[in-house]
Automatic annotation (TrEMBL), chain A:
Gene expressing this chain: LOC113211913
Compartments reported by the entry: Membrane
The keyword Glycosyltransferase is annotated on this UniProt entry: no
Name under which the protein is recorded: V-type proton ATPase subunit a
Organism: Frankliniella occidentalis
Spans through the membrane: 414-438, 459-477, 545-563, 575-598, 653-672, 782-807
UniProtKB/TrEMBL annotation, chain B:
Molecular-function annotations in GO: proton-transporting ATPase activity, rotational mechanism
Name of protein: V-type proton ATPase subunit
Gene this chain is encoded by: LOC113216025
GO CC term, one of those recorded: proton-transporting V-type ATPase, V0 domain
Subunit and interaction comment: V-ATPase is a heteromultimeric enzyme made up of two complexes: the ATP-hydrolytic V1 complex and the proton translocation V0 complex.
Length: 854, 84
């Protein structure tokens, strides 16, 4: 049977699994993905369930795997994705897996730790290297400077250099007293230098001297791995007090201080030893990195399948936690929702699971009766999935309710196309969708995070149909990028002579003489495209078409509600809701549609009867308003105010009957139910009285409260029956529904005019674009014209795709969505069900993969 | 004025075949119902849309308003002569 018309028939089942076989069976069911388990211990919290230990172990394994994955990503090692889907391993294999991961993790951590300490060492040495190099530069500069300006002071004492370094000021100070200057050298982050300098100046009252030089190459921070820029500094000061102060400030600014020898010879020696140590460290570091790389490459080969295995095990234990333990502890009891059609497949999977686990007792699957609403399960394929998603976005259907999705497969693209109708734009959309459909497999394999692309790709079949229908409506509207095709030859001619044409600039062709008496066979006559009164004609046509399509779709929706009533066996609703609804809609709005067709057929330009001339054609809208207000039609001299004989009388009758439908919808059902309730109560009272009498006779000594017990339990405890409902609630309910329907019919009919509005906007926009852009390119002559066409075409093409196809397409899509959700589905769809969410490895793995990517 | 038989018959036949004949010869399978529904709905919506467009032009109440240059060109291109 057409599977999509209603959701699948579901049944609640009880499943008895032997403890040993449970794991294997659940694993098989997870591969199948057709069973939704119910939580049988909702009051037990997550930490007190049976398999909480196993779940925790899986979590731990997953954490280790994530750590591994992070390290692999850090080193840019490609992860091989073979696409294989390993089965969930046996529970005993879990220990092996755990051991493997444990070993890998420890190895990696050790390697990382080693590498970090080595790197720290390396950093320190490099910093020392830089200090030695830079300070040497300071000292050298100073020596040269002093040699030039104070040659007589060049005296080979030990303080010499420092004095030289301090320059003139130092000289002055040196002249006053025998100075012994101390100094510290270190390395600090470059951005901290200004604050550091200010702090030193303030804390030491200007009594220290700071020189600094930038280290050009960035250094790697071993803890974070970031590249940081640092500067070397050297501070001179006098006395121990200042020394402690300077040291404290350095500490506060996280500057690393290094010992620096005072004589040039010592410094040179130190530099040599530092260089050799750096060399050694480099080789060791390289070896460590090599080892780490080898470990990670080996892990990268398996990590995907490990992830799948661990996630499967975890999912199985999570599911087992939902089960109930039998008193004997020998078997697990599960309750699950199952599609009736798939019972066989599930039985088979269970048998496979039992065989795999080597258990001798087969699992038992029992169907159960329940009053609960089963979940809604619509079996979709890649084609119907997008349409089902559009419907589900509004609300999931109730169980076994008529599903609007199969109807939307055509009506959705069609209504979209009415708004988007243009052969050229439709073709662009069609080709784009066709590309996605043909390249489906490779595109699907290439998973991307691009949300917009994923939306387009998910709705590729919807887009394909939208494109095809837009091309069809484009042919009917005779629009190709706002240009008309004259395939069959226009059915209008020019009958004006030269004389007249010379004296008048604009002329209206009279349909009486210049029209070939039959219309252009397919779509609009191309002459309208170049007529200046095109909009007047198009508006009349498009508005009428909108209303015709709208009334047709709404009627269709109401008819679908009949299917619901019949399926759920609500005879009452057919007579008390469905019939008045149909009458109301037909007598008012379908009648208006019929008037439109009558107007198209009867009034013509060269009619024999004067009353049927174009000037006499009445406006349908005014006629309809007058009809509802019971006003006589407006009179025009020489015309018949009515379109056909007896119109006035028929219209009055139609309106009166339609209005009578309102109280019918409003009152009939609650009154009927109330009457039935009264009858039931009467019966019940009689029954209770009879019981009381009998009881009174039989057990005269009993308390009266005991005898009243049957009366306290109303027999109407069947769920789903409305006999317990409060009458006022019934009235409110039916009042809301009636008002919604009656006002809705009016406003929804008007709402379909958006078809006209959007299609007008689309046609006008594309025409403006053609005239303002493309025509400019076509008008220029000579070689300039070639360039102009080239430039203007590029401009026009970009705007066409971005504005007319993408933006207009989006807006038409949203309006179509609204028309389906509000105007169409409100007639029959309640959409308050919940989705069937089976236990399926595929879904779980997909979710895990997606959350991992984020 | 009015309809000309040939386009009406051709179009009605075309969509009639799609909407009425094809649904009977859809191959059996789990999606047969969907295929039938798709064909029927396609045919009825497309036919209705074409019909509305055709009927709206059957008896035009107004004529197109054109510039004299366009009218002259129309006469030359489609009739080969300008009426006097």
């Amino acid at each position: 049977m057409g599977s999509l018309f209603r959701s699948e028939e579901m049944t609640l089942c009880q499943l008895f699994l032997q403890s040993e076989a449970a794991y294997a069976c659940v694993s098989e069911l997870g591969e199948l993905g057709l069973v939704q388990f119910r939580d049988l211990n909702p009051d037990v919290n997550a930490f007190q369930r049976k398999f909480v230990n196993e779940v925790r172990r899986c979590d731990e394994m997953e954490r280790k795997l994530r750590y591994l994955e992070k390290e692999i990503k850090k080193d840019n090692i490609p992860v091989t994705d073979t696409g294989e889907n390993p089965e969930a391993p046996q529970p005993r294999e879990m220990i092996d897996l755990e051991a493997t991961f444990e070993k890998l993790e420890n190895e990696l951590r050790e390697v990382n730790m080693n590498a970090e300490s080595l790197k720290r060492n390396f950093l320190e040495l490099t910093e020392v290297k830089h200090i030695l190099r830079k300070t040497q530069v300071f000292f050298d500069e100073a020596a040269q400077g002093s040699l030039v300006s104070y040659p007589q002071m060049a005296d080979p004492s030990r303080e010499e250099e420092q004095v030289q370094l301090l320059g003139e000021e130092g000289m002055r100070a040196g002249g006053q007293a025998a100075l012994k200057l101390g100094f510290v050298a270190g390395v600090i982050l470059r951005e901290r230098i200004p604050a550091f300098e200010r702090m030193l100046w303030r804390a030491c009252r200007g009594n220290v001297f700071l020189r600094q030089a930038e280290i050009e190459t960035p250094l790697e921070d071993p803890t974070t791995g970031d590249e940081v820029y640092k500067s070397v500094f050297i501070i001179f000061f006098q006395g121990d007090q200042l020394k402690t102060r300077v040291r404290k400030i350095c500490e506060g600014f996280r500057a690393s201080l290094y010992p620096c020898r005072e004589t040039p010879a010592d410094r040179r020696e130190m530099a040599m030893s530092v260089m050799t140590r750096i060399e050694d460290l480099n080789t060791v570091l390289g070896q460590t990195q090599d080892h780490r790389h080898r470990v990670l490459v080996a892990a990268a080969k398996n990590i995907k399948s490990w992830f799948i295995k661990v996630r499967k095990i975890k999912a199985i234990y999570h599911t087992l936690n939902l089960f109930n333990l039998d008193v004997t502890q020998k078997c697990l009891i599960a309750e699950c929702w199952v599609p009736v059609l798939d019972m066989e497949a599930i039985q088979l999977a269970l048998r496979r699971g039992t065989e795999r686990s080597g258990s001798s007792v087969p699992p038992i699957l029992n169907r159960m009766d329940t009053f609960e609403d089963p979940p809604t399960y619509n079996r979709t394929n890649k084609f119907t999935k997008a349409f089902q998603a559009l419907v589900d976005a509004y609300g999931v259907a109730n169980y076994r309710e008529v599903n609007p999705a199969p109807y939307a497969i055509i009506t959705f693209p069609f209504l979209f196309a009415v708004m988007f109708g243009d052969l050229g734009h439709g073709l662009i959309m069609f080709l784009f969708a066709l590309y996605m459909v043909l390249k489906e497999k490779p595109l699907q394999a290439k998973k991307t995070d691009n949300e917009i692309w994923n939306i387009f790709f998910g709705g590729r079949y919807c887009l394909l149909l939208m494109g095809v229908f837009s091309m069809y409506t484009g042919i009917i509207y005779n629009d190709v990028f706002s240009i008309s095709l004259n395939i069959f030859g226009s059915h209008w001619r020019n009958d004006y002579g030269k004389q007249l044409l010379m004296t008048h600039k604009d002329l209206t062709i009279d349909p009486k003489d210049s029209y070939l008496s039959t219309p252009y066979p397919v779509g609009l006559d191309p002459i309208w495209q170049i007529a200046s009164n095109k909009i007047v004609f198009l508006n009349a046509f498009k508005m009428k078409v909108s209303i015709i399509l709208g009334v047709a779709q709404m009627l269709f929706g109401v008819v679908l509600s009949l299917w619901n009533y019949r399926y759920f066996n609500k005879k009452l609703d057919i007579y008390l809701i469905f019939i008045p609804q149909v009458i109301f809609l037909c007598f008012l709005f379908l009648y208006m549609v019929i008037l439109m067709f009558i107007k198209w057929v009867t009034y013509e330009a060269n009619a024999m009867d004067d009353a049927l001339k174009p000037t006499c054609a009445p406006s349908i809208l005014i006629t309809f308003i007058n009809m509802v207000l019971f006003k006589p039609a407006d009179k025009v001299a020489g015309c018949d105010p009515y379109m056909y004989g007896g119109q006035a009388g028929l219209q009055k009758l139609l309106v009166v009957v339609a209005l009578l439908c309102v109280p019918w919808m409003l009152l009939a059902k609650p009154l009927y139910i109330m009457r039935n309730q009264k009858k039931a109560h009467l019966l019940l009272n009689n029954h209770v009285n009879a019981v009381e009498e009998n009881g009174g006779a039989a057990h005269a000594d009993l308390e009266s409260g005991v005898q009243n017990a049957p009366a306290a339990q109303p027999p109407a405890h069947k769920p789903g029956s409305h006999e317990e409902e409060d009458p006022t609630e019934l009235f409110i309910h039916s009042g809301i529904h009636t008002i919604e329907y009656v006002l809705g019919s009016v406003s929804h009919t008007a709402s379909y005019l958006r078809l006209w509005a959007l299609s007008l906007a689309h046609a006008q926009l594309s025409e403006v674009l053609w005239q303002m852009v493309m025509r400019l390119g076509l008008q220029a002559e000579g070689w300039l014209g070639g360039i102009m066409v080239f430039v203007m075409f590029a401009f026009w093409a970009v705007l066409t795709v971005s504005i007319l196809v993408l933006m207009e397409g989006l807006s038409a899509f949203l309006h179509t969505l609204r028309l389906h959700w509000v105007e169409f589905q409100s007639k029959f769809y309640s959409g308050t069900g919940y989705n069937f969410s089976p236990f399926s490895f595929e879904v779980i793995l997909d979710q895990a993969a997606n959350s991992n990517d984020d | 004025m009015g309809a000309s038989l040939i386009p009406v018959i051709i179009f009605t036949l075309l969509w009639g075949v799609v909407g009425i004949v094809l649904p009977f010869i859809v191959p059996k399978g789990p999606n047969r119902g969907i295929f039938q529904l798709v064909l029927i709905l396609t045919a009825s919506t497309c036919w209705l849309f074409w019909l509305c467009c055709y009927m709206a032009q059957m008896n035009p109440l107004i004529g197109p308003k054109l510039s004299n240059r366009t009218l002259l060109l129309m006469s030359r291109a489609w009739d080969g002569k300008v009426p006097t």
